Amino acid sequence: xxxxxxxxxxxxxxxxxxxxxxxxxxxxxxxxxxxxxxxxxxxxxxxxxxxxxxxx
Length: 56
Fold this sequence. Notes:
By secondary structure, this protein is an all-alpha fold. The protein is 50% helix and 0% strand. The protein starts with 9 loop residues before the first helix and ends in a 9-residue tail after the last helix.
């Protein structure tokens, strides 16, 4: 069948799924994040200095 893939064993299938999830969730660019990967977005976010107003 078109688009189907088979793996020699369950371990290989799990590794392939993990590789795909890791790429999809950490390195793939997202339009909602300004075409940055989630990792690049978080790195930029946490590098931004934050200042708090001192309470009275």
